[in-house]
Specification:
elongated; 9-stranded antiparallel β-sheet; alpha+beta; 2 domains; 10-stranded antiparallel β-sheet
Length: 316
């Protein structure tokens, strides 16, 4: 017959084993649910801050997003971030031998993220460095003392770039939409093209009715197919990048100007208008441009040549 002491030990073992099974089954998913967001459609604001006082605030209005109340957000960038918020999963706790280093990095270089639904924070955490295998990041939930290895199952890469983080910093320009023109053909009422290098190439197009005027305001017959094609080419035209360092526009040579409705695109000669792309083994011709006298952009000729056309391409 078992003694009371033996029975007590057996009962304790059963309790501890049951508790272990319970925690293993339910505790980890609870942590996972704190990191990932099941319903990302409820997110209407995202705040991201690095340790150098750079901050990003992404706000949803309808189906579009803005960054810092200044620029439209690139659709691909916000879609990637929302997908990440939904798919990230806790992989395992940080190993004890690197625990202190991970915490130290987060306190000095970690990037803080908050996801909002209205005024309510859905989840917030700090993103640390990537793991040695470059397949996950160390992350720390707000008000937690225990960092975890977090990844996206089956995703081959670490996560910080998906939050717009580069070299442990965030920059609003990494989020800016590169969209320059996105005008449906039936919304175009007026086009004026000025070629500063050869003024005889300049023209003006009025619509309803369609009239083509030369540089000296002479009405010319035109190729209807080419005019229609021109009007149809103002959809989803993107610049390559923004040139944000100091550049004096007065020192750049103007090439041309294109006015469509109320938007004005002005192009400038680059000191070197070509760049070789080794990966694809071809040369891309580029030039500087501004839209409505805004920030200097870099545009690629093969993208914009279909709208920066001269009058010879329109006349019969």
């Amino acid at each position: 017959m078992l003694s009371r002491k033996t029975i007590f030990v057996i009962v304790l073992l059963i309790i501890f084993f049951s508790a272990y099974l319970f925690l293993n089954k339910y505790f980890k998913p609870t942590l996972e649910s704190k990191f990932h967001i099941e319903n990302v459609s409820s997110i209407d604001k995202i705040f991201i801050a690095d340790r150098n006082d750079n901050t990003i605030t992404l706000i949803r209005s309808g189906t579009s997003w803005t960054v810092n109340n200044k620029y439209l957000v690139r659709e691909a960038a916000i879609n990637t971030l929302l997908e990440t918020a939904n798919k990230i999963r806790l992989k395992n706790p940080v190993p004890k031998n690197i625990f202190d280093n991970v915490i130290k990095f987060m306190s000095t270089s970690g990037v803080y993220v908050e996801f909002f639904d209205g005024d309510n924070i859905i989840v917030s955490y700090t993103i640390g460095s990537n793991t040695p295998d470059h397949l996950a990041n160390y992350m720390l939930l707000e008000n937690s003392q225990v960092p975890y290895v977090v990844n996206i199952p089956s995703f081959n890469g670490f996560l910080s770039p998906r939050y717009g983080i580069q070299a442990n910093e965030v920059n609003e320009n990494n989020w800016r939409s590169h969209l320059v023109f996105n005008i449906p053909a039936d919304s175009i009422k007026f086009i004026r093209y000025t070629n500063y290098m050869n003024p005889s190439y300049s023209y003006q197009l009025n619509f309803n009715p369609t009239i083509l005027l030369s540089n000296n305001q002479k009405s010319l017959s035109f190729n209807q197919k080419e005019v229609f094609l021109l009007k149809s080419n103002f959809l989803k035209l993107n610049c390559e990048a923004f040139k944000l360092n100091e550049t004096n526009l007065d020192e750049l040579q103007k090439i041309e100007q294109l006015i469509v409705n109320s938007d004005t695109l002005t192009t400038y000669q680059m000191s070197s208008s070509k760049i070789s792309t080794k990966k694809d083994n071809f040369t891309v011709e580029r030039k500087y441009a501004t839209l409505n006298d805004g920030d200097l952009m870099i545009i690629q000729n093969y993208v914009f040549n279909k709208v920066l056309i001269n009058i010879k391409e329109l006349i019969n």
